[in-house]
Amino acid sequence: MHSRFTQQELPACKPILTPELVMATFIFLGITFIPIGLSHLAASDHVVELIDRYDEDCIPTDKFNPSAAHHNRVGYIQDVKTDKTCVRTLTVPKKMKHPIFVYYQLDDFYQNHRRFVKSRNDEQYRNPLADHRTGNCEPESLNNENKPIVPCGLIAWSLFNDTFTLSRNNIALPINQKDIAWESDKTHKFGSNVYPKNFQSRGLIGGAKLNESIPLNQQEDLLVWMRTAALPSFRKLYGRIETDLEANENINVVIQNNYNTYSFNGKKKFVISTTTWIGGKNDFLGRVYITVGGVCLLIAITYIIFYLVKPRPLGDPSYLSWNRIPASN
Ligand SMILES: *[C@@H]1O[C@H](CO)[C@@H](O)[C@H](O)[C@H]1NC(C)=O
User: 65 CA distance to ligand 1 centroid (A)?
Assistant: First the structure.
């Protein structure tokens, strides 16, 4: 068969990697990546962030007796009768422009565990006629009377239930909790006519209760929680503060410390943060850009030095092994 294809004669780009081309490419990568990296770092530096770990401080000290700490803390948090209010005062480090995002952060909470991630039934969450669809939801599929739990599964069951109320100078500082979930979750993934049923009514209480008169797609804290985090340390959006905060202002945070991370030594943090075009505070991407750009420049410089000190003509046939003078042994 003789064709241009079998003879490998199809038109193709056959670049010749001359030293000039290689050096120019590395220099170009270096001088574009380093400024990109610097601008990321500058943006990240602009973000004002306030983090307050409260899980340990919000347990009364008499429950914190180290010898029996584990038992006491879990007992305290599971006791529905004790008041779990905890007041914290935070000082704003720098002026924070609105919108200011309010998050809770959990550390050492494995929302990414395989059996946890799969413990849900999206058909049930979406379709009002699919109450009975509780596949994958064990052990949170049926209540004690064999009625289906809506929303079923361990993710929904473990919904975060600490609450935060803010004030400054004794004036309430409202947190807007609307529009914190993904739009597609509200319009597609969760139904506007699916209502919670038999939720948290079976055995151990895992977390927050849901209002049975509000459809799932409007329970935005649930939607945020149900987008499981990929890493064991994660933040979830709680709401937004829609006024500016001035430097050195004191913010009063009243926490209802309900959520049990004590039985597995997880940590709980309250976070408020501004954002810029790169999102929240994150130096990683900027550092990666600068490192890659720096390595490219370094390679380019090495090439240039070799090129100047020990140049050799391109395509010189005397370098071919069969043209070399054989070694003298
Ligand atoms: C909050 O969740 C914990 C489990 O993490 C549960 O023991 C507690 O009863 C819940 N409290 C409220 C008020 O929902």
Answer: 22
Phi, psi of 149 (to 5 degrees): -90, 130
Per-domain residue ranges for the chain?
18-47+278-306, 48-274
State the DSSP code for 132. Answer: T
DSSP one-letter string for 141-202: SB-TTSPBPBS-SHHHHT----EEEEEETTEEE--B-SS-S-HHIIIIIS-TT---BSTT-S
CA 259 – ligand 1 centroid, Å: 5
Ligand 1 atom nearest to CA at 256: 13
Residues recorded for the chain? 329
Cβ(251)–Cβ(62) below 8 Å: no
| Ligand 1 atom showing the smallest separation from residue 204 Cα | 7
Sheet harboring 163-168: ordered strands across? 85-91, 250-256, 163-168, 171-173
Tens digit of each residue's pLDDT (9 = 90 or more) over 56-72: 999 887 665 656 556 68
Give, using CA atoms, the residue closest to atom 14 of ligand 1. Answer: 208
pTM value is: 0.84
Residues 22-55 pLDDT 10s: 999 999 999 999 999 999 999 999 999 999 999 9
CA–centroid distance, residue 288 to ligand 1 (Å)? 41
Among 160, 205, 221, residue to substitute to test ligand 1 (most atoms within 8 Å of Cβ): 205
- Residues 65, 317 contacting (CB under 8 angstroms): no
Ligand 1 centroid, distance to 188 Cα (angstroms): 29
